[in-house]
Design a protein that fits this description.
282 residues; Rossmann fold; 9 helices; 15% strand
Length: 282
């Protein structure tokens, strides 16, 4: 991964690097000759990655929900490689279940990882990026960060929050030469629908609305069309571009769904424009 500043070796700091997108991003960065700070809750899961090119990989423990972990990992990264060029906030998991089926503790735990965790790592890395006057922050969202579907209310809530913060962040740090990219993948062959997906207890009344979503997650796991390695290459291409997009949709399913959602939004806006504009004081 690299940004537009130059073509020299970069240092990529990746959360959730032990599997899925995180592992694919790490392997791609190494194949391009870059350094990788690979983080995971259990750094022993990174042994194979380190073994491939130990001189260019720093494995470090990082539980994004544990206070102080992000700062310690960032400090270690700078001490080892001297800088951080690309931060990839990838750590996260999913929940499937209707809103009423999702207990408060599950919803809060999901937000702690997918949203607050990403914010903690970002805040820890920002002083380094600001001092360098350059770098990039890549926040892995989802097509579910633009819209939602029955059964994904909790997951989409965490990604909507991530996207809202990222959009403002992009404006806040642009003057420092820092890029922010929100990545919105569709269905990619990661473990999101397997080990990284929590199924909530079923309330029979929601079977008609949510049953199809539950079935989809089970049948799609391992059969997703998206290639995580190609996602990594697409992200690098976006970072290298003279005009890097704020949002990058990956996969035909994501592109089609986001476009349809935007068209519906515009249609509703046009249909109700007169009503909405008629609410001001006379």
């Amino acid at each position: 991964m690299s940004n537009t500043q130059n073509s020299q070796i970069k240092t990529c700091f990746i959360t959730g690097a032990s599997s899925g997108f995180g592992l694919a991003f790490a392997e791609y960065a190494l194949s391009r000759g870059h350094n990788v700070v690979a983080t995971a809750r259990d750094p022993s899961t990174l042994t194979a990655l380190v073994g491939k090119t130990p001189e260019r990989v720093l494995a470090h423990a990082l539980d994004v929900t544990r206070e102080g972990d992000a700062a310690r990992a960032v400090t270690a990264a700078v001490a080892h490689f001297g800088r951080i060029d690309v931060l990839i906030n990838n750590a996260g998991y999913g929940i499937v279940g209707a809103l009423e089926e999702t207990p408060d503790n599950e919803l809060r735990a999901l937000m702690e990882t997918n949203f607050f965790g990403a914010m903690a790592v970002t805040r820890a890395a920002l002083p380094v990026l600001r001092a360098q006057r350059g770098g990039a922050i890549v926040n892995i969202s989802s097509m579910g960060g633009q819209m939602s579907f029955a059964g994904f209310s909790a997951y989409s809530a965490s990604k909507f929050a991530l996207e809202g913060a990222s959009e403002a962040l992009a404006q806040e740090v642009a003057g420092f030469g820092i890029k922010v990219v929100i990545v919105e993948p569709g269905s990619f062959r990661t473990n999101l629908l397997g080990a990284s997906l929590r199924h909530m207890p079923v309330i029979d009344d929601y079977q008609q609305a949510v049953g199809g979503t539950r079935s989809y997650t089970r049948s799609e796991d391992g059969a997703q069309a998206g290639d995580p390695a190609k996602a990594a290459a697409a992200i690098e291409r976006a970072l290298r571009a003279e005009k890097t997009p704020l949002r990058l949709q990956l996969g035909a399913d994501a592109i089609d769904a986001v476009r349809a959602h935007a068209e519906t939004l515009l249609a509703d806006l046009n249909a109700w424009e007169a009503v909405g504009k008629a609410t001001q004081f006379d």
